[in-house]
Write a structure and sequence with these properties.
Helices cover 41% and strands 23% of the residues. By secondary structure, it is an alpha/beta fold. The protein folds into two domains: 3-120, Response regulator (Rossmann fold, 3-Layer(aba) Sandwich), CATH 3.40.50.2300; 129-224, Orthogonal Bundle (Arc Repressor Mutant, subunit A). Strands 2-1-3-4-5 form a five-stranded parallel sheet, sandwiched between helices. Strands 6-7-8-9 form a four-stranded antiparallel sheet, with helices on one face. Strands 10-11 form a two-stranded antiparallel sheet. Helix 1 (12-24) links the parallel strand 1 (3-8) and strand 2 (27-32). The model has no long low-confidence stretch (mean pLDDT 86).
Length: 226
């Protein structure tokens, strides 16, 4: 299922980085940089979710939110802002926001929370991915094998999703780093190795015959053992 997302953020570098992040995670994204354009786009009712920065030129994100709710646009909306004070959060929720995430934030938390926000609408049904005896459940962020289940962190889920979408394909550590953490991430390459190690332990814990196999000098791939 393709999810259409509108991102309204006046910091262009951040807006473009967010668009890149969500597109990597199978969202279709439109990006705008001011409140009036955000209101114009969001009024179409064609989006599955909206991320609104509070402080934008033209009109604020809060004003955009109020106008949309007044127009009976019920699209799930997350407020994304540097303001983290309780009064700002209360104003956003009172105006009809579905969630509120202050900057700075972790990209994986943003992805997980947007997906959770979509699930609460009752209309979003992300695909459960299967390979061999393994099931990756995007609703509960878990790996399942038979009756055994293990929960994943946000980054572990993203790495596993990459493998599950294209099993038996080798991904270099650099490519995994780029696809999951982003090309401009400050994280070191060893973070990929750590997450691969953690996922291997979790696959073993649930007794799956699916494994993340190292291809020496090339990278890693997901394969089903005999």
């Amino acid at each position: 299922m393709t999810v259409r997302l509108l991102i309204a953020e006046d910091e262009r570098d951040l807006a473009d980085a967010l668009a890149f992040l969500f597109e990597k995670n199978q969202f279709t994204v439109d990006t705008v940089y001011d409140g009036l354009t955000a209101y114009e786009y969001a009024s179409s009712g064609e989006y599955d979710a909206i991320i609104l920065d509070v402080m934008m030129p033209g009109i604020t994100g809060i004003e955009v939110l109020k106008r949309l709710r007044r127009d009976n646009i019920q699209t799930p909306i997350m407020m994304l802002t540097a303001k983290a004070q309780k009064d700002d959060r209360i104003e956003g929720f009172n105006a009809g926001a579905d969630d509120y995430l202050p900057k700075p934030f972790e990209p994986d938390e943003l992805i997980v929370r947007v997906r959770a926000m979509l699930r609460r609408t009752g209309e979003y049904r992300p695909d459960t991915m299967r390979f061999g005896d393994l099931c990756l459940n995007p609703n509960s962020i878990t790996l399942e094998c038979g009756k055994k289940t293990v929960r994943l962190s946000g980054r572990e889920y993203q790495v596993m999703e990459l493998f599950m979408r294209t099993p038996n394909v080798v991904f270099s550590a650099d490519r995994i780093m780029d696809r999951v953490w982003g090309w401009d991430s400050d994280a070191e390459i060893n973070v990929v190795w750590v997450h691969i190690s953690n996922l291997r332990k979790k696959l073993k814990a649930i007794g799956s015959h699916v494994a993340i196999v190292a291809n020496r000098g090339l990278g890693y791939m997901l394969e089903e053992k005999a």
